[in-house]
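Lecture 7 notes: from sequence to structure.

We start with a single chain of 394 residues. Read the sequence below before looking at the structure.
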Amino acid sequence: MKNKKRLLVVASTFPRWKNDTLPPFVYELSRRLTDKFEVYVLAPHFKGAKKYELMDDMHVFRFQYFPEDYENLVCSGGAIPTLKKNKLTYLQVPFFFMAELFSLLKLVRKIKPKIIHAHWIPQGFTAALIKKLIGVPYLLTSHGGDAFTYNGYFGRLFKKYTLRNAQSITTVSSEIRDTFLKLDSKLKISVISMGVDTNLFSPARKQNPVRNLEIIGKPLLLFVGRLTEKKGIHNLINATPEIIQKFPHCKLLIIGSGELEEQLKYQVRSLGLSKHVNFVGAVKNRDLPKYYSVADIFVAPFATAKSGDREGMPVILMEALASGTPVICGDFKGSSQMIMPGKTGFVIKDTKNWVFLINKILKNKIYMGKYCRAIAVKNYDWNKIAKRYGDLLK
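Now the structure, written as C-alpha cells:
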C-alpha cells in the first residue's frame, strides 16, 4: 500500500529486543497494523536495548529517562509493583514523565502522524498534552491496572482528563469500561481485547520432551505470568498440599519472574513442596507454546492486590485456550467472557474446590481441549482483533 498514513504507538511495555520475555501484546497488535499504516513506536529504554531499531517494519524509538543502570521503573515487571517493592523508584517517575513527553513531542513533530495509539492511562495523559499542543488525536487503550488504580482525588482528575480528550477509547474488558463510565457516563468506549497468535499457540505445538525431561506424572499444572500480588500464585501454593494428597504425582510448573519470586520460593520450601513445584523463571514468548500444549491444566489464581490492581482480560488465558489447555482461574469480572464452566475450564471462587475441579477437568480434558481451541480461534485470533483496531484508527 503506497502512501500509508503514519501511526505512532506509545506504550510502557514493549519488547526490549528480539525474543524478549516481556509480554508482547502491544508489539503483536502494532506489527499487524503495518499493512495499513506506517507504524512508529515510542517506548522506554532499558539497558542493553537499542535507542532505535526497525522491528518487523516498525520504527521503534526508546527514550532514556534515567541512568541506564537504574532504568527499571517499567521494563522489569510493571510500574505499580515496582514502585511498591522499592519506594526509591518513585524518584524515577518525574524523569520518566518528562522524558516521555519531550520524546513524544519531538517524534510527533518529526514524523507528523495521523493519530497516536496510547496504551495505558499514563501514556494517554502524555498524548492528551500533545493533542493540546499540536492537535494530533489519540486512541486510548486501557489494559486494566491503569483503570483500577490512581483512585485518589488527583488520580481521578488525571484519568478524567485523559479519557475526555481521547478521540476514541478501547478497553480490553467490560469491567474496565464500566469503571470508566463511573467517572464519566458520557464516554463512548469500545470493548476490544488483545489477541493471541492461534498458529503459534496451538495443540499442534505439542513437544513431549518438555514434559519428559522436566515433569514426571500427572497432573501437570502450569502457571505463566508475572510473580506479583494480583496473579494470586501464593493462594495456589497454599492449596497445593491438599492437591497432592489427592494427586501425589502432581507437579506445578511456574513460569515467570517478578518482585515476589523469592517470597514464593520460600513459601514453597516452608510447606515442603519443593518436589512438586518447579520455578522455571522467565521464558521467551516463542518458547511458551510447548509448555502450554503439554500441560493438563492451566492455573491462574487471580486476586485483587491491596492497591486495587487486578486483571483486565489476561492474554495468558487466551494463550492457554488456543493451546487446547483447560483453565482454572481466579474470579475476576472479565472471566465470564472467556471461561465457560465445564467447557473451557472453571472459575474458582472457593479455594477448597481445587481438588474437585482438577479431577473434573482430567476426566473431560479431551472434550474441553477441543472447545478451548475453538473459542480462542473464534474470538481472540490476532488477525480479527487487529482488524477491529485498524478500523478505529482509520
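Residues 212-217 have pLDDT under 50 and may be disordered. Keep this in mind for problem set 3.
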